[in-house]
Amino acid sequence: MTITAHPATARPAATPATAVNAVAMKKIIILGATSGIALEVQRLLAGRGCELLLVARSPQRLAELQADLLVRGAQQVLTYSADLASIQQHAAVFDFARLNFPDFDTVLLAYGSMHDQKDSESSVDILLEELQVNFVSAAAILTLFAADLERRRTGCLAAITSVAGDRGRRSNYVYGSAKGALFLFLQGLRSRLYSAGVRVITIKPGPVQTPMTDHLPNSARFADPEQVARDIVRALEHRSPDVLYTPKVWRYIMAAVQQIPETIFKRLSF
């Protein structure tokens, strides 16, 4: 896929300094900027006067986002078109960020895919694609940005995983295993970067109302993406906690699920 860069567009009227100084992060890179959760996060960040670099596949959607976020108060919005599932494109994304968005302090990984579990069971190609998008490519691009922040001894890396990664269930164990692998990767990365002063936040939403989950049963009852976005922005502001469950009730739900003995769990139909 051809990578296309869009030049910076500065907002003509500056936002009051207090709107920017009130938050720990000022220059944020969003990997997967057109995902449902990322859209809500970016609107909140724009309202805080942050500077943003948005990375996603569609140049048209990125251009629309750029215009919208500038109106909402973002100080600067850069966009870059790339397929983040393709590791071959990561070096160009990283180089663009270093050249055109220097001194970025926060990176949020917000992309992923969710194929139907039955499709992953019947097709090795689909299974591998699910693992590639949700774990392999995510670990690869985070490694690039982690090295830069580690060298500068500052900043925050955050990645959206899922409560599905807390335990393998028959209904989504391929997706869940990819998210579980990303959770372990982030755990190790957090330990590695601790002494460098770089925070690593693992974000574990429960089911959220987004286009990726529209096909699932009872999706209308899933969490409001605006609520999840508020939790994420709050975590980015305070550089904590290490692991964020959102909505927070999912921390207790998954703690209970993990305590179910395997002899019982394997008989459950969910």
Can you describe this structure?
This protein is α/β, with parallel strands linked by helices. It has a single domain, classed as Rossmann fold. Helices cover 47% and strands 16% of the residues. The protein contains ten helices and eight strands. It has helices at 17-21, 36-47, 59-72, 90-100, 117-122, 124-152, 173-194, 225-238, 249-258, 262-265; strands spanning 4-10, 27-31, 51-56, 76-81, 106-109, 156-160, 199-205, 243-246. It has an eight-stranded mixed β-sheet with strand order 1-4-3-2-5-6-7-8, sandwiched between helices. Helix 3 (59-72) links the parallel strand 3 (51-56) and strand 4 (76-81). Helix 2 crosses helix 8 (225-238) and helix 6 (124-152) packs parallel to helix 7 (173-194). The protein is globular. It starts with a strand and ends in a 5-residue tail after the last helix. The model is unreliable at 1-23 (pLDDT under 50).
Give structural attributes.
270 residues; alpha/beta; Rossmann fold; 8-stranded mixed sheet; 47% helix
